[in-house]
Amino acid sequence: MGPDRTGFAEFYACARDDCLRTVLAITGDRQAEEYVAEAFARAWASWRTVGTHPAPRAWVVRTALNLRISYWRRHRREVPDDQDAFPVVDGAAAGPDPGVVDPQIIAALAALPERQRQVIALRFLLDLDTAGTAQMLGIAPGTVTAHLARAVSTLRAQLLDTEQERRP
Amino acid sequence: MTDDDLITGDLITMVAEPFTGVRMTTPAGPIEARGRSIQRHRRQGLAAAGAAVAAVLALVTFAVLPRPHLAAVQLTAWTVTTEPSGIVAVTIGDLHDPAGLQRALQAHGVPAIVHFHPPGGPVSVSSCMTRVPSKLAAAEKRVFAKPPTTSGGRALLYIDPAAVPRADKITIDAFGGNGISLGLVTHDGHCPPGSSPGRIGMKTTPAGHR
Fold first, then answer.
1. What integer pLDDT is reported at residue A150 of this predicted model?
2. Which contiguous run of DSSP H or E holds residue A155?
């Protein structure tokens, strides 16, 4: 008799979009959905553990990011296809569907240092609190706050300026 | 200022809302199918690991435990040959099967009492022993036609069957790593002059042992 997977379907339905958005914001990778789908499959296979995890969505995101790292380690000697070029965070070329996400936000996130981008994605898109973000990234809560402050400052400057430029 | 103070409504609008159009299109079915595949691979991996562990344990057990049934493939423990001169040459390389050596000597015309004493084992010696070949009793000097020697970790003894008095027997006591004691015991149980009953400890011809 296999482990009880009650709740996985509900978890998947509720969490899948947030997890994909978070991974996409952090990586800007067109293959983000593949990594997230594989991470959810592993969550299904380990549901006894993941189902009782304090932050199962963070587990999925962490797993997806690790899968992506593993993938690129395995294929780093290969010449990347233009369609899957990494990082794709160069504006309009980003995201599973470039037409879905505003290229300005993708560009703004891409301009952030990686750690700041991770903090922004986990706080804004995955709705993790400071402690959860710190735990997932393996850094101190105070460091999360510092990264968040710098990232917010940068984003405000970039996005608000752009917004004002757009206005007639 | 806390983190929550930093996350203001306008920033949420600017950062999060552009992603609302991003949706996971993969249905739950393929996710669960892939999950089953992962689980199956894990179980196969565990089974393979278990088999590997069992194989290693079996190998270790095979290597560590005594294997008496393999004695037949070991190097010959001893050999007995009769030279053209009639001298019986005996080599002892391993302290195995003293009764077999005793029978082989008998077949070559040498009545003998053979005892092997592996290291750490109980020591029981023949009734008569001579500590060093140079002090062999006169009768023993005739029986052991040449001085014992060693070669390649094997002891070499030379026995003249014709010199063994009728009804007497030679005694060979080989001690693992500590040599071989030679002697002669008469048919009535006495030791020839010069021999010392039950003495051990000579180190003239080391006998190999495994």
1. 94
2. helix A141-155
C-alpha B189/C-alpha B128 separation (Å) is 9
Q: What ipTM did this prediction achieve? A: 0.76
* pTM of structure: 0.53
Question: Strand order of the sheet with strand B88-92?
Answer: B78-82, B88-92, B154-159, B146-151
- Judge contact between A159 and A108, C-beta under 8 A: yes
DSSP string, B31-97: HHHHHHHHHHHHHHHHHHHHHHHHHHHHHHHHHHS--GGGGGGSPPSEEEEE-TTSPEEEEE-S---
The rounded distance, in Å, linking the Cα atoms of B35 and A40 is 8
Q: How many CB pairs under 8 A join A and B?
A: 104
Nearest CA in chain A to B24: A17
Which pairing describes strands B78-82 and B88-92: parallel, antiparallel, or unpaired? antiparallel
- The verdict on a CB contact (< 8 Å) between A44 and B35 is yes
- Side-chain-side CA neighbours of residue A150 (13 Å): 14
pLDDT in tens, B60-106: 877 776 655 544 444 678 889 888 888 899 888 878 888 999 999 99
List, as ranges, residues 88-127 from B with C-beta within 8 Å of A. none
Picking from A93, A148, A86, A158, the residue whose alpha carbon sits closest to that of residue A117 is A148
Phi, psi of B129 (to 5 degrees): -145, 150
Which of A 100-129 lie inside 8 A of B, CB atoms?
A: 100-102, 104-106, 109, 120, 123-125, 129
